[in-house]
Structure prediction request, 224 residues.
Amino acid sequence: MIWSDILALIVVYVYVAAIFVIAEMVLKTKPEVSRKFLHIMVGNMIFAMPFFSDPWVMVWFLTLPITIALFFLTEYSPIKIQNSVTESGHALGLFFYAGIWTILIAVFTKQLWIVALAIVPMVYGDGFAALIGQKFGRVKYKVFGGEKSLEGSLTMFVVTTVMSVFVWMVFSTIGYPMPNFNLVAVLGISAVATICEALSYGGIDNLTVPALTSILYYLVTITL
Prediction:
């Protein structure tokens, strides 16, 4: 590990700690807003990934420790911790949220842009979809017992598409090795991610959406 990695870790840890404090204390009177605020703001870590010289530094010293810590807040923990579900959201969903980062970075160490684009629908798409759907959702539908709204799903598709383009441009601008920009791929994969989110519920979408999205980006941009 070099000094730039240590500095990057310090910056990310301070940022995440600040977001948790804000979500738990300042916004605790509005638990759903607090949960999605945390969901979205922590996701901004994707912009820090290119600044690590070794992606495994993120795994061993950031995402994996957080994943393990969050596991002990779930109902499956061998150690029962009081108030295992925080104001910011369900502990199992947070565990999935951190866990998929760990898995994706470990798998795509040489294509961190795939990790970033796979995280986008989970972080921004799902986050804003929930906020818009709850406030403005009028056309409801149910899939496998989970209620969604058409307005929320449309929001997820639009936000995922826009943020995917933005992330692609940011990674390209800072010089991270990227394939040629493919708007058709972004639109298609954003649509699939939206459908996947609609079919998932109970926090499992924090696993299914990024996993499927990463596979699709790999297949479309690397193997084809």
User: Anything to note?
Assistant: Residues 3-223 form one domain. The longest helix spans residues 112-136.
